[in-house]
Specification:
- The protein is mainly α and 240 residues long.
- The protein contains 10 helices and no strands.
- The chain has helices spanning 4-23, 27-36, 45-60, 70-93, 96-123, 126-145, 149-158, 166-185, 189-212, 228-234.
- The radius of gyration is 19 Å and the shape is globular.
- The two termini are 28 Å apart.
Length: 240
């Protein structure tokens, strides 16, 4: 019989693969930015939010906070690098005002996370440290989950899923489910809360897709398929 630890590691590895795919989902957008040498109407804020989220979960997965949780650190560390690459591309092709804004937000995030790390290490003993860091992780994860609400409103008002790609919605749902399972095998309340919400929100997206797909205008061949709304949605998916 497979032990709980082995089962958890297998589920965690599957979660790493799914999350990695989600982190790569904005690649077509940045290929377009590089090709046009212009960020156009795209915004950096989903990626800035994901950077902060990855920083917190990378810290949470370290043995100094939670033991036997290194798979959480690995995927979020990889995600952090990927998001920073996206932001570097955005920085390169954006105007001066946006560059300053992105730089200030990144600096603020770095300082904020550093303060949280110092407080966690100095003010909390090991058994209470996970609670403090876990609460911080969940707070920012829940804030991130509010991002797709604008997309849902657009889907409902236009009766079209044009701006909510099916495979990305399915991947978000799968990601939430697999990390919820990971949190349940060896109960981790903080991961369970954020990923349970992720699975729920993913399920809602799929239900909306099923309801409004029949009324969605069919795309004509040869038309541009990358849209800003897809970028805002895809920037949120991989947080665990």
């Amino acid at each position: 019989m497979v032990s709980a630890n082995v089962a958890r590691n297998i589920v965690g590895i599957i979660g790493n693969v799914i999350s990695f795919g989600l982190f790569l989902s904005p690649v077509p957008t940045f290929h377009r930015i590089i090709k046009k040498k212009d960020v156009e109407e795209f915004q950096p804020f989903p990626y800035l939010a994901t950077v902060l989220n990855c920083l917190f979960w990378t810290f949470y997965g370290l043995p100094i906070v939670v033991k036997n949780n290194i798979l959480v650190t690995t995927i979020n560390a990889v995600g952090l690098v990927i998001e920073l690459i996206y932001l570097s591309i955005f920085y390169l092709y954006s105007g001066k005002k946006m560059r300053i804004r992105v730089s200030l937000v990144l600096l603020g995030e770095a300082v904020f996370v550093a303060v949280v790390v110092v407080i966690a290490m100095l003010a909390f003993k090991f058994k209470h440290r996970a609670v403090f860091v876990g609460i911080m992780c969940d707070i920012f994860n829940i804030i991130m989950y509010a991002s797709p609400l604008g997309i849902w409103k657009k889907v409902i008002t236009t009766k079209s899923v044009e701006f909510m790609p099916f495979y990305l919605s399915l991947a978000n749902f799968s990601n939430g489910c697999i990390w919820t399972a990971y949190a349940l095998i060896k109960l981790d309340v903080f991961m369970l809360i954020c990923n349970g919400l992720g699975a729920l929100f993913g399920a809602i997206q799929l239900i909306l897709y099923a309801i409004y797909y029949p009324s969605t205008p069919k795309k004509k061949k040869g038309k541009e398929t990358v849209k800003p709304a897809e970028v805002q949605l895809s920037g949120q998916g991989a947080a665990v």
